[in-house]
Design a protein that fits this description.
Layout: E1 4-12, H1 19-28, E2 34-35, E3 48-49, H2 57-61, H3 63-68, H4 71-86, E4 98-103, H5 109-122, H6 131-135, H7 139-148, E5 154-155, H8 163-176, E6 182-189, H9 194-202, E7 232-240, H10 241-246, E8 253-262, H11 275-287, E9 297-299, H12 306-320, E10 328-330, H13 333-336, H14 343-357, E11 359-360, E12 383-384, E13 389-396, E14 400-407
Helix pairs in contact: 4-7, 8-14, 11-12
Family: Belongs to the thiolase-like superfamily. Beta-ketoacyl-ACP synthases family.
Protein name: 3-oxoacyl-[acyl-carrier-protein] synthase 2
Keywords: Acyltransferase, Fatty acid biosynthesis, Fatty acid metabolism, Lipid biosynthesis, Lipid metabolism, Transferase
Amino acid sequence: MRRVVVTGLGAVTPCGVTAPSAWQTALSGRSAIQKITRFDCAELPVQIAGEVPEFGATELLGAKVARQTSRFVQFSAVAANEALQDAHYDSQSMGDDCGCLIGVAIGGLGEIEESACLLKERGASRISPLMLPYAIPNMASGFVAIEHRLRGPNFAIATACASGTHAIGEAARLIRDGETKMMLAGGAEAAICPLSIASFAKMRALSRRNDEPHLASRPFDRNRDGFVMGEGCGLLVLEEYEQAVKRGANIYAELVGYGLSADAHHITMPGPEGEGLARSIRGALASGQINPADVDYINAHGTSTPNNDSLETQAIQSVFGVSADNVSISSTKGVTGHCLGAAGGIEALFTVLAIKHDVVPPTANLDTPDPACPLDYTPNTARERNIKLALSNSSGFGGQNACLAFKKLA
């Protein structure tokens, strides 16, 4: 079986607009959640989010690209530039065996909302001819492929908040099956807009700590009251091991396992006892021929919602048994918020860097551990640990689950 390794990283996140800067903030445990600045939120019940700060699309991509693309595509373009440069790829070296797979949960919801208001208020003649390209989720992978001449497999996965993780797992499968030699894969999202905030707030899914935004996202804490919306993009360059060695690439880690499952239970609630996620984790371990006792770190889905965090704890306990107490676990959503379709890409990137640097990023704001979440969730302070094997978990509305297993190269 062909081996798959990670040779490049790119990130646009609320806690940093490069992979190194995002990683350093994640290690610090400083929350990037603030009051919403991109639109007037005074009439909304929730007024906080993990916005990407000071993102200048025109400066980063040029005026023409900024004008022709929506925010989630812009995030993808910037992260792709960084990841491919990090992997020492350029457009001249791309071919039919290089592809792109970016998961997006929602797409250009903000642009759809603005266009709908414009249509109602000023008529059809005012709608941009680019409205549909602004909105459709596959435009992230499509635009990146155009920019970098990635002529291999190219598509988008939309599995809610598991989109980025599924994208990485399926990209790795394409390489293992010999369909391609290199894939740029991960997740992107930019859905912070009045409509999404109002909708999630109506579901009672969001934290309402409007006066304490930096304390709002608190995975596994007894006083958590919901997730905080984030945005961004996390991309990994995956390639076949022999090719990476041949061209002298810097290898961060090997992707050795991938598991996926469905709860088949409820459109928004996780399955009972985290059973679906547990099957996904078992699948990743089985495909990578991994003994649960050998796992050193898990980047948890850890959304900061009461149900998710307790059920994910049950899933981990179910899979690992007595070994669960020996695994270091954390949720970096305490820093970034929940970046929806981008979450899996960003968190896979953090997992790879945890392996590379032998350090466990902390769970921010974990001040009062929940008795229903009794595992080692690395509260507030990063911890050095030799990390040879690590997992990254994701779940999404509709009951989709995914898990990736990464390994340090000997």
